[in-house]
Automatic annotation (TrEMBL):
Transmembrane segments: 22-48, 95-124, 151-172
Name of the protein: histidine kinase
Reactions performed catalytically: ATP + protein L-histidine = ADP + protein N-phospho-L-histidine
Coiled-coil region list: none
Gene3D superfamilies in the cross-refs: 1.20.5.1930, Histidine kinase-like ATPase, C-terminal domain (3.30.565.10)
EC number(s) on file: 2.7.13.3
Keywords: ATP-binding, Kinase, Membrane, Nucleotide-binding, Phosphoprotein, Transferase, Transmembrane, Transmembrane helix, Two-component regulatory system
SUPFAM superfamilies per record: ATPase domain of HSP90 chaperone/DNA topoisomerase II/histidine kinase
InterPro entries linked to this entry: HATPase_C_sf, HATPase_dom, Put_sensor_dom, Sensor_HK_TwoCompSys, Sig_transdc_His_kin_sub3_dim/P
A GO MF label: kinase activity
Domain Histidine kinase/HSP90-like ATPase: 314-404
Top EC class, one word: transferase
Protein backbone atom coordinates (compact mmCIF):
# COMPACT_ATOMS: atom_id res chain seq x y z
CA UNK A 1 0.00 0.00 0.00
CA UNK A 2 2.76 2.45 0.90
CA UNK A 3 4.47 1.78 -2.44
CA UNK A 4 1.23 2.36 -4.35
CA UNK A 5 0.67 5.65 -2.50
CA UNK A 6 4.26 6.78 -2.97
CA UNK A 7 4.72 5.81 -6.62
CA UNK A 8 1.24 6.64 -7.97
CA UNK A 9 -0.64 8.92 -5.53
CA UNK A 10 -3.29 9.91 -8.08
CA UNK A 11 -3.92 6.35 -9.26
CA UNK A 12 -4.16 5.32 -5.59
CA UNK A 13 -7.57 7.00 -5.33
CA UNK A 14 -9.15 4.84 -8.05
CA UNK A 15 -7.60 1.57 -6.84
CA UNK A 16 -8.98 -0.84 -4.26
CA UNK A 17 -6.63 0.48 -1.58
CA UNK A 18 -8.99 3.25 -0.33
CA UNK A 19 -11.66 0.61 0.33
CA UNK A 20 -9.12 -1.50 2.24
CA UNK A 21 -7.84 1.42 4.33
CA UNK A 22 -11.36 2.67 5.02
CA UNK A 23 -12.37 -0.81 6.16
CA UNK A 24 -9.28 -0.96 8.38
CA UNK A 25 -9.98 2.46 9.94
CA UNK A 26 -13.71 1.89 10.48
CA UNK A 27 -13.18 -1.55 12.00
CA UNK A 28 -10.35 0.06 13.97
CA UNK A 29 -12.86 2.46 15.50
CA UNK A 30 -15.06 -0.49 16.49
CA UNK A 31 -12.16 -2.47 17.98
CA UNK A 32 -10.85 0.71 19.61
CA UNK A 33 -14.16 1.12 21.45
CA UNK A 34 -13.93 -2.57 22.35
CA UNK A 35 -10.39 -2.03 23.65
CA UNK A 36 -11.57 0.93 25.71
CA UNK A 37 -14.28 -1.21 27.31
CA UNK A 38 -11.96 -4.21 27.71
CA UNK A 39 -9.07 -2.25 29.22
CA UNK A 40 -10.00 -2.79 32.90
CA UNK A 41 -10.32 -6.52 32.26
CA UNK A 42 -7.12 -6.57 30.17
CA UNK A 43 -5.11 -5.21 33.10
CA UNK A 44 -5.97 -8.41 34.98
CA UNK A 45 -6.81 -11.07 32.40
CA UNK A 46 -4.57 -9.88 29.55
CA UNK A 47 -5.29 -8.58 26.06
CA UNK A 48 -4.92 -11.90 24.25
CA UNK A 49 -8.27 -12.09 22.34
CA UNK A 50 -8.11 -8.49 21.14
CA UNK A 51 -4.44 -8.80 20.21
CA UNK A 52 -5.15 -11.95 18.20
CA UNK A 53 -7.91 -10.09 16.35
CA UNK A 54 -5.59 -7.17 15.61
CA UNK A 55 -2.90 -9.49 14.25
CA UNK A 56 -5.42 -10.84 11.75
CA UNK A 57 -6.97 -7.46 10.93
CA UNK A 58 -3.76 -6.14 9.34
CA UNK A 59 -4.56 -8.45 6.39
CA UNK A 60 -6.94 -5.68 5.25
CA UNK A 61 -3.81 -3.69 4.37
CA UNK A 62 -2.66 -6.33 1.90
CA UNK A 63 -0.02 -7.91 4.13
CA UNK A 64 -0.04 -11.34 5.77
CA UNK A 65 -1.53 -11.65 9.24
CA UNK A 66 1.08 -11.20 11.95
CA UNK A 67 2.49 -14.33 13.51
CA UNK A 68 1.67 -15.22 17.08
CA UNK A 69 4.68 -14.20 19.19
CA UNK A 70 3.81 -16.41 22.19
CA UNK A 71 5.80 -19.54 22.88
CA UNK A 72 4.27 -22.88 23.77
CA UNK A 73 4.27 -23.47 27.57
CA UNK A 74 6.75 -26.03 28.84
CA UNK A 75 4.07 -27.99 30.69
CA UNK A 76 0.32 -28.45 30.21
CA UNK A 77 -2.19 -26.81 32.51
CA UNK A 78 -3.62 -23.36 33.18
CA UNK A 79 -0.93 -22.45 35.73
CA UNK A 80 1.89 -23.19 33.29
CA UNK A 81 0.06 -21.27 30.56
CA UNK A 82 -0.41 -18.19 32.77
CA UNK A 83 3.20 -18.36 33.96
CA UNK A 84 4.46 -18.53 30.39
CA UNK A 85 2.25 -15.69 29.22
CA UNK A 86 2.96 -13.24 32.03
CA UNK A 87 6.72 -13.75 31.83
CA UNK A 88 6.80 -12.92 28.11
CA UNK A 89 7.58 -9.46 26.78
CA UNK A 90 4.97 -10.04 24.06
CA UNK A 91 2.18 -10.05 26.65
CA UNK A 92 3.11 -6.60 27.93
CA UNK A 93 3.51 -5.27 24.40
CA UNK A 94 -0.04 -6.47 23.72
CA UNK A 95 -1.25 -4.64 26.80
CA UNK A 96 0.53 -1.46 25.67
CA UNK A 97 -1.10 -1.76 22.25
CA UNK A 98 -4.53 -2.22 23.85
CA UNK A 99 -4.07 0.96 25.90
CA UNK A 100 -2.99 2.91 22.81
CA UNK A 101 -5.76 1.38 20.69
CA UNK A 102 -8.43 2.45 23.14
CA UNK A 103 -7.08 6.00 23.40
CA UNK A 104 -4.62 7.51 20.93
CA UNK A 105 -5.42 5.26 17.97
CA UNK A 106 -9.17 5.58 18.54
CA UNK A 107 -8.90 9.38 18.47
CA UNK A 108 -6.64 9.20 15.40
CA UNK A 109 -9.08 7.00 13.47
CA UNK A 110 -12.07 9.19 14.34
CA UNK A 111 -10.10 12.32 13.39
CA UNK A 112 -9.13 10.74 10.05
CA UNK A 113 -12.77 10.02 9.24
CA UNK A 114 -13.96 13.48 10.30
CA UNK A 115 -11.17 15.21 8.41
CA UNK A 116 -11.87 13.18 5.29
CA UNK A 117 -15.60 13.86 5.50
CA UNK A 118 -15.04 17.58 6.18
CA UNK A 119 -16.09 18.84 2.70
CA UNK A 120 -19.39 16.96 2.83
CA UNK A 121 -19.98 17.98 6.45
CA UNK A 122 -19.23 21.64 5.70
CA UNK A 123 -21.53 21.59 2.69
CA UNK A 124 -24.32 19.91 4.66
CA UNK A 125 -23.87 22.45 7.44
CA UNK A 126 -24.08 25.31 4.95
CA UNK A 127 -27.26 23.94 3.40
CA UNK A 128 -28.77 23.45 6.85
CA UNK A 129 -27.89 27.04 7.83
CA UNK A 130 -29.39 28.27 4.55
CA UNK A 131 -32.62 26.40 5.24
CA UNK A 132 -32.74 27.72 8.81
CA UNK A 133 -32.18 31.34 7.79
CA UNK A 134 -34.80 31.01 5.04
CA UNK A 135 -37.32 29.73 7.57
CA UNK A 136 -36.55 32.62 9.92
CA UNK A 137 -37.15 35.17 7.13
CA UNK A 138 -40.47 33.57 6.27
CA UNK A 139 -39.42 31.71 3.13
CA UNK A 140 -40.45 28.06 3.40
CA UNK A 141 -37.73 25.75 2.14
CA UNK A 142 -38.50 22.15 2.93
CA UNK A 143 -35.81 20.83 0.57
CA UNK A 144 -32.77 22.63 -0.92
CA UNK A 145 -34.09 21.95 -4.41
CA UNK A 146 -37.27 23.91 -3.54
CA UNK A 147 -35.36 27.16 -2.97
CA UNK A 148 -35.75 28.22 -6.59
CA UNK A 149 -35.67 26.53 -9.98
CA UNK A 150 -32.31 28.11 -10.76
CA UNK A 151 -30.77 27.12 -7.43
CA UNK A 152 -31.55 23.40 -7.73
CA UNK A 153 -28.76 22.55 -10.25
CA UNK A 154 -26.31 24.66 -8.27
CA UNK A 155 -27.12 22.87 -5.02
CA UNK A 156 -26.98 19.45 -6.69
CA UNK A 157 -23.64 20.27 -8.28
CA UNK A 158 -22.31 21.52 -4.98
CA UNK A 159 -23.42 18.31 -3.27
CA UNK A 160 -21.68 16.21 -5.94
CA UNK A 161 -18.46 18.21 -5.61
CA UNK A 162 -18.58 17.96 -1.80
CA UNK A 163 -19.11 14.21 -1.88
CA UNK A 164 -16.34 13.72 -4.45
CA UNK A 165 -13.94 15.87 -2.44
CA UNK A 166 -14.75 13.91 0.71
CA UNK A 167 -14.21 10.60 -1.08
CA UNK A 168 -10.78 11.71 -2.32
CA UNK A 169 -9.80 13.23 1.02
CA UNK A 170 -11.02 10.14 2.89
CA UNK A 171 -8.82 7.97 0.69
CA UNK A 172 -5.72 9.81 1.87
CA UNK A 173 -6.66 10.43 5.52
CA UNK A 174 -7.69 6.82 6.12
CA UNK A 175 -4.56 5.63 4.31
CA UNK A 176 -2.36 7.72 6.61
CA UNK A 177 -4.19 6.50 9.72
CA UNK A 178 -4.15 2.87 8.53
CA UNK A 179 -0.41 2.94 7.79
CA UNK A 180 0.33 4.45 11.20
CA UNK A 181 -1.78 1.91 13.07
CA UNK A 182 -0.54 -0.99 10.95
CA UNK A 183 3.07 -0.08 11.64
CA UNK A 184 2.37 0.20 15.37
CA UNK A 185 0.64 -3.19 15.30
CA UNK A 186 3.66 -4.69 13.55
CA UNK A 187 6.03 -3.21 16.14
CA UNK A 188 4.04 -4.28 19.21
CA UNK A 189 2.12 -7.40 18.16
CA UNK A 190 4.51 -9.21 15.82
CA UNK A 191 7.17 -11.57 17.19
CA UNK A 192 10.01 -9.69 18.83
CA UNK A 193 13.72 -10.39 18.81
CA UNK A 194 13.39 -13.33 21.17
CA UNK A 195 10.88 -15.06 18.87
CA UNK A 196 13.02 -14.34 15.83
CA UNK A 197 16.00 -15.90 17.60
CA UNK A 198 13.95 -19.05 18.29
CA UNK A 199 12.75 -19.11 14.69
CA UNK A 200 16.26 -18.60 13.36
CA UNK A 201 17.61 -21.37 15.58
CA UNK A 202 14.97 -23.80 14.34
CA UNK A 203 15.54 -22.72 10.74
CA UNK A 204 19.28 -23.25 10.99
CA UNK A 205 18.74 -26.66 12.57
CA UNK A 206 16.49 -27.60 9.65
CA UNK A 207 19.06 -26.21 7.23
CA UNK A 208 21.76 -28.41 8.76
CA UNK A 209 19.52 -31.45 8.32
CA UNK A 210 18.70 -30.36 4.77
CA UNK A 211 22.36 -29.88 3.88
CA UNK A 212 23.21 -33.29 5.30
CA UNK A 213 20.41 -34.86 3.27
CA UNK A 214 21.62 -33.00 0.18
CA UNK A 215 25.18 -34.20 0.78
CA UNK A 216 23.96 -37.80 0.95
CA UNK A 217 21.88 -37.29 -2.21
CA UNK A 218 24.89 -35.93 -4.12
CA UNK A 219 27.03 -38.79 -2.85
CA UNK A 220 24.39 -41.30 -3.95
CA UNK A 221 23.98 -39.64 -7.36
CA UNK A 222 27.73 -39.68 -7.89
CA UNK A 223 27.99 -43.33 -6.84
CA UNK A 224 25.01 -44.58 -8.84
CA UNK A 225 25.44 -42.36 -11.87
CA UNK A 226 28.70 -40.67 -12.83
CA UNK A 227 30.93 -43.11 -10.93
CA UNK A 228 29.40 -46.11 -12.70
CA UNK A 229 29.79 -44.43 -16.07
CA UNK A 230 33.43 -43.65 -15.33
CA UNK A 231 34.02 -47.27 -14.29
CA UNK A 232 32.51 -48.49 -17.54
CA UNK A 233 34.63 -45.95 -19.41
CA UNK A 234 37.77 -47.29 -17.72
CA UNK A 235 36.87 -50.88 -18.53
CA UNK A 236 36.14 -49.96 -22.15
CA UNK A 237 39.49 -48.16 -22.47
CA UNK A 238 41.33 -51.15 -20.96
CA UNK A 239 39.60 -53.49 -23.42
CA UNK A 240 40.45 -51.14 -26.30
CA UNK A 241 44.07 -51.04 -25.16
CA UNK A 242 44.26 -54.85 -25.21
CA UNK A 243 42.67 -54.99 -28.66
CA UNK A 244 45.13 -52.45 -30.03
CA UNK A 245 47.96 -54.93 -29.50
CA UNK A 246 46.23 -57.72 -31.49
CA UNK A 247 43.53 -56.19 -33.72
CA UNK A 248 43.61 -52.36 -34.10
CA UNK A 249 40.49 -52.43 -36.27
CA UNK A 250 38.49 -54.06 -33.45
CA UNK A 251 39.64 -51.31 -31.08
CA UNK A 252 38.00 -48.52 -33.08
CA UNK A 253 34.39 -49.33 -32.01
CA UNK A 254 35.59 -49.59 -28.41
CA UNK A 255 37.20 -46.16 -28.62
CA UNK A 256 34.00 -44.71 -30.10
CA UNK A 257 32.05 -46.33 -27.27
CA UNK A 258 34.49 -44.85 -24.73
CA UNK A 259 34.03 -41.39 -26.26
CA UNK A 260 30.25 -41.72 -25.92
CA UNK A 261 30.54 -42.86 -22.30
CA UNK A 262 32.84 -39.91 -21.56
CA UNK A 263 30.32 -37.47 -23.05
CA UNK A 264 27.48 -39.06 -21.06
CA UNK A 265 29.50 -38.90 -17.82
CA UNK A 266 30.39 -35.25 -18.50
CA UNK A 267 26.74 -34.37 -19.16
CA UNK A 268 25.65 -36.12 -15.97
CA UNK A 269 28.29 -34.32 -13.93
CA UNK A 270 27.33 -31.01 -15.52
CA UNK A 271 23.67 -31.60 -14.65
CA UNK A 272 24.58 -32.49 -11.09
CA UNK A 273 26.74 -29.39 -10.66
CA UNK A 274 24.05 -27.23 -12.26
CA UNK A 275 21.65 -28.29 -9.52
CA UNK A 276 24.16 -27.24 -6.87
CA UNK A 277 25.16 -23.88 -8.30
CA UNK A 278 24.22 -22.69 -11.81
CA UNK A 279 27.20 -21.56 -13.84
CA UNK A 280 25.35 -18.65 -15.41
CA UNK A 281 24.59 -17.29 -11.94
CA UNK A 282 28.29 -17.22 -11.07
CA UNK A 283 29.36 -15.70 -14.38
CA UNK A 284 26.58 -13.23 -15.22
CA UNK A 285 24.53 -12.68 -12.07
CA UNK A 286 20.91 -13.03 -11.01
CA UNK A 287 19.11 -11.28 -13.93
CA UNK A 288 20.81 -13.51 -16.53
CA UNK A 289 20.21 -16.66 -14.46
CA UNK A 290 16.50 -15.84 -14.03
CA UNK A 291 16.22 -15.06 -17.74
CA UNK A 292 17.68 -18.50 -18.48
CA UNK A 293 15.09 -20.07 -16.17
CA UNK A 294 12.30 -18.14 -17.88
CA UNK A 295 13.48 -19.23 -21.31
CA UNK A 296 13.16 -22.88 -20.36
CA UNK A 297 9.44 -22.68 -19.49
CA UNK A 298 6.49 -23.21 -21.80
CA UNK A 299 4.60 -20.43 -19.96
CA UNK A 300 5.44 -16.86 -21.08
CA UNK A 301 7.57 -15.19 -18.40
CA UNK A 302 8.31 -11.46 -18.33
CA UNK A 303 11.39 -10.57 -16.27
CA UNK A 304 12.10 -7.08 -14.92
CA UNK A 305 15.04 -7.19 -12.51
CA UNK A 306 16.57 -3.78 -11.82
CA UNK A 307 19.87 -4.80 -10.27
CA UNK A 308 22.66 -2.37 -11.24
CA UNK A 309 25.29 -4.09 -9.08
CA UNK A 310 26.22 -7.67 -8.25
CA UNK A 311 24.83 -8.90 -4.97
CA UNK A 312 26.59 -11.06 -2.35
CA UNK A 313 26.76 -14.69 -3.56
CA UNK A 314 24.53 -16.12 -0.77
CA UNK A 315 21.85 -13.55 -1.60
CA UNK A 316 22.00 -14.29 -5.34
CA UNK A 317 21.89 -18.04 -4.80
CA UNK A 318 18.95 -17.88 -2.39
CA UNK A 319 16.99 -15.54 -4.66
CA UNK A 320 17.73 -17.80 -7.65
CA UNK A 321 16.38 -20.94 -5.99
CA UNK A 322 13.30 -19.10 -4.68
CA UNK A 323 12.48 -17.79 -8.15
CA UNK A 324 13.17 -21.21 -9.69
CA UNK A 325 10.76 -22.89 -7.26
CA UNK A 326 8.09 -20.22 -7.84
CA UNK A 327 8.36 -20.55 -11.63
CA UNK A 328 8.18 -24.34 -11.43
CA UNK A 329 5.10 -24.23 -9.21
CA UNK A 330 3.37 -21.70 -11.46
CA UNK A 331 4.07 -23.71 -14.61
CA UNK A 332 3.27 -27.18 -13.22
CA UNK A 333 0.57 -26.70 -10.61
CA UNK A 334 -1.12 -23.31 -11.02
CA UNK A 335 -2.19 -23.59 -14.70
CA UNK A 336 -0.75 -20.11 -15.20
CA UNK A 337 -0.77 -18.47 -18.64
CA UNK A 338 1.58 -15.58 -17.77
CA UNK A 339 4.21 -15.00 -15.11
CA UNK A 340 5.84 -11.72 -14.10
CA UNK A 341 9.15 -11.57 -12.20
CA UNK A 342 10.12 -8.16 -10.84
CA UNK A 343 12.92 -7.14 -8.53
CA UNK A 344 14.95 -4.22 -7.31
CA UNK A 345 17.78 -3.42 -4.93
CA UNK A 346 16.96 -0.43 -2.74
CA UNK A 347 18.34 0.72 0.60
CA UNK A 348 20.44 -2.40 1.02
CA UNK A 349 17.56 -4.84 0.47
CA UNK A 350 16.82 -7.09 -2.48
CA UNK A 351 13.11 -7.37 -3.19
CA UNK A 352 11.90 -9.96 -5.71
CA UNK A 353 8.28 -10.69 -6.56
CA UNK A 354 6.96 -13.54 -8.70
CA UNK A 355 3.33 -13.11 -9.78
CA UNK A 356 1.28 -15.54 -11.88
CA UNK A 357 -2.31 -15.51 -13.13
CA UNK A 358 -2.99 -19.13 -12.19
CA UNK A 359 -5.82 -20.62 -10.18
CA UNK A 360 -4.28 -19.75 -6.80
CA UNK A 361 -4.89 -21.64 -3.59
CA UNK A 362 -1.21 -22.54 -3.15
CA UNK A 363 -0.33 -23.89 0.29
CA UNK A 364 3.33 -23.75 1.44
CA UNK A 365 2.70 -26.84 3.57
CA UNK A 366 1.24 -28.77 0.67
CA UNK A 367 4.47 -29.90 -0.92
CA UNK A 368 5.34 -26.77 -2.93
CA UNK A 369 8.97 -27.01 -1.83
CA UNK A 370 8.95 -23.57 -0.23
CA UNK A 371 9.51 -24.73 3.34
CA UNK A 372 13.18 -25.52 2.79
CA UNK A 373 13.64 -22.27 0.89
CA UNK A 374 12.00 -20.37 3.75
CA UNK A 375 14.61 -21.84 6.08
CA UNK A 376 17.35 -20.65 3.73
CA UNK A 377 15.74 -17.19 3.65
CA UNK A 378 15.42 -17.12 7.45
CA UNK A 379 19.12 -17.92 7.78
CA UNK A 380 19.87 -14.70 5.86
CA UNK A 381 17.42 -12.70 8.05
CA UNK A 382 15.07 -12.28 5.10
CA UNK A 383 11.33 -12.71 4.62
CA UNK A 384 9.37 -14.89 2.20
CA UNK A 385 5.65 -14.21 1.89
CA UNK A 386 3.22 -16.23 -0.24
CA UNK A 387 -0.20 -14.78 -1.09
CA UNK A 388 -2.43 -17.12 -3.08
CA UNK A 389 -6.19 -16.67 -2.68
CA UNK A 390 -8.43 -19.15 -4.50
CA UNK A 391 -8.79 -18.00 -8.07
CA UNK A 392 -5.46 -16.20 -7.99
CA UNK A 393 -3.31 -14.37 -8.51
CA UNK A 394 -0.44 -16.02 -6.66
CA UNK A 395 2.29 -13.65 -5.48
CA UNK A 396 5.54 -14.76 -3.88
CA UNK A 397 7.50 -11.87 -2.37
CA UNK A 398 11.10 -12.23 -1.22
CA UNK A 399 13.07 -9.65 0.76
CA UNK A 400 16.75 -10.22 1.58
CA UNK A 401 19.21 -7.85 3.26
CA UNK A 402 22.28 -7.46 1.07
CA UNK A 403 24.93 -6.61 3.64
CA UNK A 404 28.07 -8.45 2.71
Amino acid sequence: MAEALRHAPLRFVVSTWPLRTAAYVFTGIATGLLALAWLPVALVAGAFPLAALERRRVALLGVPALADPHRVPDRPGAAAWLRARYTEAATWRELAYTVLHGSVLLVMNVAAVLLGAAPALIYASGVANFATSSAQTGVAVSHPADASPSAAPLLAGGAAVAVLASAVLLAYTTAAAAMAQGELARLLLAPGDEARVRLLTRSRARLIDAFESERRRIERDLHDGAQQRLLRLGMTLVTAQLELDHDPAAARPLLAQAAGEARAALAELRELVHGIHPRVLTDLGLPAAVAELAGGLAVPVHVRLDLPVRLPPPVELTAYFVVAEALTNAARHAAATAILVTGEHTRGTLTVEVRDDGRGGADPAGGTGLTGLADRVDALAGTLVLTSPPGGPTVLRLELPCSA
